[in-house]
Amino acid sequence: MRSSWADLAANSAAENAPTPPPSAAAAVANNAANTRPVYVPPHLRNRGPSAPAPAAPAFDNSGSRWAPPPRNDYRGGGGGRGGGGYGNRGGGGWDRREANPFADQDDSEEPVTQEEQENTGINFDAYEDIPVETSGGNVPPPVNTFAEIDLGEALNQNIRRCKYVKPTPVQRHAIPISLGGRDLMACAQTGSGKTAAFCFPIISGIMTGQPAQRPPRGVRTVCPLALVLSPTRELSMQIHEEARKFSYQTGVRVVVAYGGAPINQQLRELERGVDILVATPGRLVDLLERARVSLSMIRYLALDEADRMLDMGFEPQIRKIVEQMDMPPAGVRQTMLFSATFPKEIQRLASDFLSNYIFLAVGRVGSSTDLIDQRVEYVQESDKRSHLMDLLHAQRANGVQGKQALTLVFVETKKGADALEHWLCLNNFPATTIHGDRSQQEREAALRSFKSGNTPILVATDVAARGLDIPHVAHVVNFDLPNDIDDYVHRIGRTGRAGKKGLATAFFNENNTSMARSLQDLMQEANQEVPAWLSRFAARSSFGGGKNRRSGGGRFGGRDFRREGSFSRGGSDYHGAGNSGGGYGASGGYGGGGYGGGYAGNSAGPGVTSAWD
DNA sequence: AAAAAAG
């Protein structure tokens, strides 16, 4: 598929003239007469007439099936509205024009108004005074602007189209680390732009890196250069949509594959070429076993919600994909793990997939205090429905134009989700539900309907707990509390995103006593008001410690497990040994004492644990 | 024990 880039380059060199790509021999000859490098990075391939003519590629495969006809996705100026030709994704068969992922947005060149920024952008004021913790050797310093990083003009333009003005904290730190070629384990807040944090370096790396060799002879096997895995289908879809925006007109192709949807369409997309494959594990294993995908060329591996991907349910599949197929080993490929939460048992498992990695935890002080208002109410099992009804009524009263604010209600079981949805509808609350017993079509329809406000109440199992970015979720209700505090963190993280405020209400009763202590600790750390009755439950249940207890007092949602043992446990002074200056150059390495935490000198109170993506 | 992920 590299050759399709080559064709593009050739095409571009000919100023978009409809001439066939040069033969390999011609390419070589041309190159011999020309000292320019043979490889043309994708960000140069869509250049307009003013761009210097790139050298012809040395690896042209014209005549083979890997050299499809030249793409015609150059559009004058590159940034304009472009008129027709968009939205032909899925139509047209061999029409290779790239659908405009920004088609549904106002693409005018008007400066972004304050209001717009407020409504659509990220509220960066919410990200001041971020505590940052890094460990590992030679940590690259963070950047403050996208301009400081050379991501290439095409990517920069997409960043502007996305209305990203400056990098979020996780992006400031993670992008230089990734661009530096380092493996990374990153804990980052919910809704703080973590997808971009791993997409930008991957796209940039593919654009500027060496051209890929031709895929092996397996006729229909495709060889992506990057693999992004996520635990749910909807999250994979979302990552794919984001990544498509970031890679628009870069020549980098992103394809998604997940279960529950017809495989044939996904196969067709794969055959058109794939640089970045976004997938759920099951469908990927299927594709690997059918030999439709080979991982032999993988340079970048990203696990989103990495702790989830490595817990009991997923670990075997992930090991199979990463260790037992044909993926290059750690140290050869570059591996990036992202999550809000990273229990140290899982960190230990994860380290199998990493090589000399940097651990990064980025959080903001008092984030939950400012952004997610957490409440816990004591509600008997039998009273939950009527209590929920009260909340919804109160909200409706506050709603704009009688419109219900978006409310996401988490329950424990799929049956429970159906039952609650049914009951809500009976009571004139337009609700829908998403869970694993529904068809993929139903799941996607439910999500759409919720996002659009058509059914402003979504009853969900944990399938919706992680990663999903649903704008304007005003309220997350933990109708049934999860059994794991990390799940709670992810669930409430569906609100209070991109610097906006949110509300989270949990129903607590005797069935949740195992959560009392961890919930109390979490809320305390986030400067939330803890009801006295909850503290009593916590005191009562705390003797055994409890599996939900976060070690060391849990100032951060994540902490490098490699540092365990080099500090006295008990966590009275989590950051005490770190220098609180700007020293990002951690020198410690594994378990060494020389941890240079770049803790952003905050004395305003306890750190944050609340919302980590 | 539940949920998710292949069909």
TrEMBL record:
Gene3D superfamilies: P-loop containing nucleotide triphosphate hydrolases. Residues 144-172 form the DEAD-box RNA helicase Q domain. It comes from the Eukaryota. SUPFAM superfamilies: P-loop containing nucleoside triphosphate hydrolases (SSF52540). Residues 75-93 have a biased composition (Gly residues). Residues 1-17, 24-34, 567-577 have a biased composition (Low complexity). Keywords: ATP-binding, Helicase, Hydrolase, Nucleotide-binding, RNA-binding. A motif (Q motif) lies at residues 144-172. It is an enzyme of class 3 (hydrolase). Residues 1-121, 543-583 are annotated as: Disordered. GO terms for cellular component: nucleus. Residues 371-538 form the Helicase C-terminal domain. Residues 557-566 have a biased composition (Basic and acidic residues). It catalyses: ATP + H2O = ADP + phosphate + H(+). Residues 175-360 form the Helicase ATP-binding domain. GO terms for molecular function: ATP binding; hydrolase activity; mRNA binding; RNA helicase activity. InterPro entries: DEAD/DEAH_box_helicase_dom (IPR011545), Ded1/Dbp1_DEADc (IPR044763), Helicase_ATP-bd (IPR014001), Helicase_C-like (IPR001650), P-loop_NTPase (IPR027417), RNA_helicase_DEAD_Q_motif (IPR014014). Its EC number is 3.6.4.13. Belongs to the DEAD box helicase family. DDX3/DED1 subfamily. This is RNA helicase.
